[in-house]
Amino acid sequence: MKTILSGQQLALTVKRLAHQILENNASLQDTVVIGLQPRGIFLSDRIVNELQILVTGGKIEYGKLDITFYRDDVRKSLHIANSTDIPFSLENKHVILIDDVLYTGRTIRAALDALLAFGRPSKVSLCVLIDRRFSRELPIQPDFTGKTIDTIISQKVKVCWKERDEVDEVVLI
Amino acid sequence: MKLSTKHLLGIKDLTRDDIQLILTTAEQFKEVLQRPVKKVPSLRDVTIVNLFYENSTRTRMSFELAERRLSADVLNFAATTSSAAKGETLLDTVNNILSMKVDMVVMRHSASGAPHFLAKHIPAAIVNAGDGINEHPTQALLDAFSMREKLGKLEGLKVAIIGDIMHSRVALSNMYLLRKMGAEITIAGPPTLIPKYIEEALDVRVEYNLKKALQWCDVANVLRIQLERQNQPLFSSLREYNLAYGINRRLLESLGKEIVIMHPGPINRGVELDSDVADGPFSIVLNQVENGVAVRMAVLYLLAGA
After folding, report:
1. CATH number for position A15
2. Chain B partners of A37 at a C-beta cutoff of 8 Å?
3. How many domains does chain A have?
4. A37, A66, A67, A69: which to substitute to probe chain B, counting the most B Cβ within 10 Å?
5. Residue A50 lies inside a defined structural domain of this protein
6. Most buried of A8, B75, B159, B183 (most Cβ within 10 A)?
7. Structural domains in chain B, sorted by start
8. Of A70, A82, A89, the CB nearest to B40
9. B4 contacts in chain A (CB < 8 Å)
10. Is position A169 within any domain?
11. How far is CA A98 from CA A11, A22, A129, A143, B196, in A?
12. Closest approach of chain A CAs to the CA of B35, in angstroms?
């Protein structure tokens, strides 16, 4: 087991991602944040908190998306859905999609498909904590990356959050 | 996690976990149905035939909508307009349909046990949409979903099931389901429409006085008087039934408490429910219909993945 990000590094990375998002979308006009269920939510909660501190005035529109019903392997194995909560339209909005680990790209493919059910966004950007590059099965790349790592298929990236796992850290198993 | 069964033949075969899983999944589908685009691609490689040997409006449309919302390909079959009218057997009909590469069969039949028979002989997953006087599992699931949505829980809930218990597949499925989920049940109706030994067999209470049953319950699930299934008259007239077991506004107001009124439809207005109750503030009849689509999506989704 190898530590990729310690608790302190993780906190700094989250702050940096929030700053980078803001740098590219000054004042977050017409921008919405969508976290991916289930595990992307821990990251998106924190990024939204950071953004809320940085952007005074105005509440950031923040939704949660579950992509279970859009998966391309429904008949191979059954997946249990989590809740989706997007109480606003995405029509002509810039969507910042947030997930913890980018691996094959299939989850993001499904998410792009799912987003269209809520309107036609003007743009979609992808923000991930860990990018396992060289493992992609689809042409999908992140716009904001916490850390890029090289891994082989037999390895596993585990992202732990204080809210659920008692510690903040990212490890490679 | 997945269902413990390959088919949905009846609530009798489901575990508590199965029921819980279907209801939670249905909640997610209910959210899908509030979206601007109310459709997901989950079952786009699945073909489903709706095999209806008995008339139906709500159930057939609800299943068909659920299938289409899941992007499945849908075939419809009605016995009256098909070769079944020329005497083709059930098994022949289904095998012919399945040879056209159909994955799931949703079936309604007037013979109790017809889907169970089919399940033994064909490889496709079967969903029972009502068989004779046996079970109507998706109705019980959507009833439970609606009760939970309205009152927050099933455990400890007091449910009165009122009317033609003898001929009602809705009643039997409801009783199985509610007992599995820890609700209490009282059934009420004329003695001729309540099977003997039902108290011992299904662990429910029987009450012949409608007002007492209503005073006891949180929810009253009122059944349709099924004239088409009665070979001999079991009560003297519809008017008499209405006087003894019909629910009207005045009766509800005399209870001194609010209860939720449910009905699986189609309503015989002026028989089991008067219009001032069916369309009144305590009725969740139309919510039941709305929830039916989400619950059936959950059932089809979970069976297709199994």
Report:
1. 3.40.50.2020
2. none
3. 1
4. A69
5. yes
6. B159
7. 11-135+291-305 (3.40.50.1370), 137-288 (3.40.50.1370)
8. A70
9. none
10. no
11. 16, 14, 8, 10, 60
12. 6
A70/B25 Cβ within 8 A: no
Q: How many CB atoms lie within 10 A of CB A96?
A: 28
Q: Is the pTM of this model over 0.80?
A: yes
Does residue A39 sit within a domain?
A: yes
Question: What residues are paired with B158 via a beta bridge?
Answer: B184
Look up residue A152 and give its two tokens. Answer: 């082989």
**C-beta atoms of B28 and A82 within 8 A:** yes
**B35-59 pLDDT, tens digit each:** 999 999 999 999 999 999 988 888 9
Q: How far is B293 from chain A (nearest CA, A)?
A: 16
The residue range of the domain holding A68 is 7-151
- What pLDDT, in 10s, does the model give residues A28-76? 888 999 999 999 999 999 999 999 988 877 788 999 999 999 987 777 7
B8 closest CA partner among B100, B111, B105, B122: B105
